[in-house]
Amino acid sequence: MTRRNEEHVDERAYPFFHHVYGRDGYVCEYNSTSGAKPTKVLSIEGFYHKYCAYCGRKALPIQGELEKGRGFFTGYYDIGHCCVCKDAMDEVEHNNKLIELKKKHEQELKELENLKPKMNQEVISSLVKKSFEEKHAQLEKDLKHCEKYGYMSESTLTMVGVTIVEGNKNV
C-alpha cells in the first residue's frame, strides 16, 4: 500500500484508494490491486521508479494477484504503472471510450452483415444441377466418340478426375 498526497488525486481515482485509521491516525492509501488501468509513464535509465508522463510524480504500481497454489497465497505480479492525476485519468477515460466505440462499431458491422442479401439457394442449386447435366452430356458424347475411334481427349479425362502419368510427371 502506498500513501499518497491527496491534493493532485483526480476524483475519478478515488476507487483506487481506501481510507484506514492506523498508527498515524486517519490515512488514505493506494490499493495496487484495485483495478486501476495503466497510463503513460516515463522510465528513465538508471532510475528504478517510473514517472507519470503528465505530472512527473512517481507512478503507482498496478498489481494482479496470483492464484493461490495448494491453499497458499503466492503473491502478486506487475501489470503496469499508473498515475492518479487529472490528465492520467483523462487518458484512462479516453481509452475506455475508445474500447466502447470499437465494440459498438463491431456490433454495428455484425448487424450490417446480417442485413446483407442472402444468395438464393434454389438458383445456386439449379445452376449446379444444370452444369452437372451439361458435363454429363459432354462426357457421354466423348465416351461414344472414344468407343467409335478408340481415343479420349485429355479434357474429358480431366473432367472425370483421371490424369495421365508417365514416370513421375503428369502429361
Topology:
Elements: E1 2-3, E2 17-22, E3 25-30, E4 41-43, E5 50-52, E6 60-65, E7 76-82, H1 86-115, H2 121-149, H3 154-159, E8 165-166, E9 169-170
Antiparallel strand pairs: 1-3, 2-3, 4-5, 6-7, 8-9
What spatial form do the alpha-carbon principal axes imply?
elongated
Mean pLDDT: 82
Total of domains: 2
How many individual β-strands? 9
Characterize the structure shown:
The structure is a single chain. The protein has two domains: 2-115, no CATH class; 121-163. The chain has three helices and nine strands. It has helices spanning 86-115, 121-149, 154-159, and strands at 2-3, 17-22, 25-30, 41-43, 50-52, 60-65, 76-82, 165-166, 169-170. It has a three-stranded antiparallel β-sheet, with no helix packed on it.
